[in-house]
Structures are given as C-alpha cells and as structure tokens.
Amino acid sequence: MKISTFELEKQTSQKYDFIIGLDEVGRGPLAGPVVAGAAILKDFNSINFEDELWDLVRDSKTLSEKQREKVVNFVMENFFVGLGICNHETIDRMNILQASFLAMKKAFTDLKKQIKNFSNLSNSFDDTGFATRFETFEDKKTILLLDGNQYIPNLTVEQKCIPQGDKKVKSISAASIIAKVARDKMMINFSEKYPEYSFEKHKGYGTKIHMESLQKFGPCEIHRKSFKPVARFL
C-alpha cells in the first residue's frame, strides 16, 4: 500500500508560504451532504515522524472506521483544519459537482479563520524544517493542493490538481480523513431521525439494504431527489 508523504509540500515550499491540502467526500451517496476538508501542517519542527500514527494519515478510503477514529485526533493535533458542508438541498439545486466545489471553498474559508485565530503559525519548509512565522494570511502566497483533476472555479487562489492526491500527499490525506469522519458522524446522527434507512451502516451510499429501504419507504427528507436512483421512487 502506498503511503502518502510530505514530498510535494517540501518541493512547493520554495514558492509558497501556505500549502493547503483539500479533499471532499460524499459525491456518490444518494442521501446526505457532501463534505470537504482543508488541512495545513502546523509546525514541521515539532513533528515526531517516528509516531506510527503517521502511517494512518493516508487516503481515508483505505482506513477502517476504527482506524479513522483513531487517527482523526492526531490529525487535529498536527494540522489546522477547515470543514465545508453542502446539504442535500444545495446538491439538488446546484448539482453534485458544483456543490462539491462550493464545499471546498467553504472548507478553505473555514481554515483561513482557524489560521487567523492562531498567531504563531509556521509553515515554510527549508533545510531545517518549518522555520518562518506568520501572523496574517492575506499577504502570504498560497497554493491549494486538490485531490483529482478538476480546479475549483471562480477562486483567485492558485491551485494544483493531483490525481489520486489523497494517496500521495499528506496534507490531502489529512483533509480526506477530517471530511470523512465529519460526514460519517452526520450520517449516524441522521440515522437516529430516520432509522428505517440504516444510514449508520451505509452512510447514504446505494447499497442493497439502502435500495430496499428506498423501495419500501420512499425517499426521506435528506435524500438527493435529483439523483436518478432516488428520483424513480418519488
């Protein structure tokens, strides 16, 4: 299994002050929101790379639910993170691709708030690791590292698309974990309101048990009505 690294962040650091990983989860499900995560490493000098938990900072899809729960606090300790959420109504109104872009914009905005609230952020790779301190965000050169091959439209910040980036780049891996854990928790909460759909088991994806529930009960409030497998039960 390929383990993501900080190599791209190191290579990019000569040109940029802020190097931010972005990823989203929840494009495919038939119900619930699409959620995006944004992550930027706090301080390279303070990292203990001998910690075995770094091996779990990889593509969230390769981790079990138990592993994600184990590593999410570790990610929060080592990265500043932001979350962006677009609900089922937004998805139906905009379509899933545009809602995913909006969720990533929201995650980036949320991350900027976290950075502004912390006056001792250092995020510049050099020969000795992170060494430079920043107190503001707006006057720093920033790049977003995006999982996949599509740029976020109407965003002035520089972007770099990385196919399978969640498998290659630690910052993107961290963002994917944050987003996945947050969305899963939301779907578990929804399962309490809509127990007949077993959202806690499949998180809204079109599994056999989910399709059987749709056929029996029809769509509930959080189903994506614009998705064909749902629309046929309206």
- CATH architecture title: 2-Layer Sandwich
Which consecutive residue ranges, at least 5 long each, have pLDDT under 50?
A: 120-135
Rg, alpha carbons:
18 Å
Note the gap between the termini.
Answer: 42 Å
CATH class type: Alpha Beta
Question: Mind summarizing the main beta sheet?
Answer: 5 strands, mixed
So, the CATH homologous superfamily?
A: Ribonuclease H-like superfamily/Ribonuclease H
Alpha plus pi helix count:
9
Category by helix and strand content: alpha/beta
| Principal-axes shape call | globular
Strand content range: 15-25%
Can you describe this structure?
The chain is an alpha/beta fold and 234 residues long. It has one domain: 2-Layer Sandwich (Nucleotidyltransferase, domain 5), CATH 3.30.420. Helices cover 40% and strands 18% of the residues. The chain contains nine helices and nine strands. The protein has helices at 7-12, 65-78, 88-94, 96-116, 165-168, 170-193, 199-202, 208-217, 228-231; strands at residues 18-25, 34-41, 79-86, 121-122, 125-126, 129-130, 133-134, 142-147, 158-162. α2 (65-78) packs across α6 (170-193) and α3 crosses α4 (96-116). It is globular, with a radius of gyration of 18 Å. The N and C termini lie far apart (42 Å). Mean pLDDT is 89; it is low at 120-135.
